[in-house]
Design a protein that fits this description.
mainly alpha
Amino acid sequence: MAHQATDIGHSRAAVVLATASGERERYALATPRERVLLGVVQARSLVIDGQKRAVITALLRAEDGASADALSRPKATLLNC
């Protein structure tokens, strides 16, 4: 819903929705890749709302999730490609 709120210009609602998705128990249960997506969605809503410092925090959080995702996947080799 945060995507849609951002797309139709409801920046404050987008921030509230995106932030809520990262603060609930669901975030803790999400895969690293899902956490990256949630962080990017939150950053996008914050950009539209003009919250530059919060954007940096959200993107850093998403980057941490991306690192965790990369570490959780097996490395590709010629044998398992």
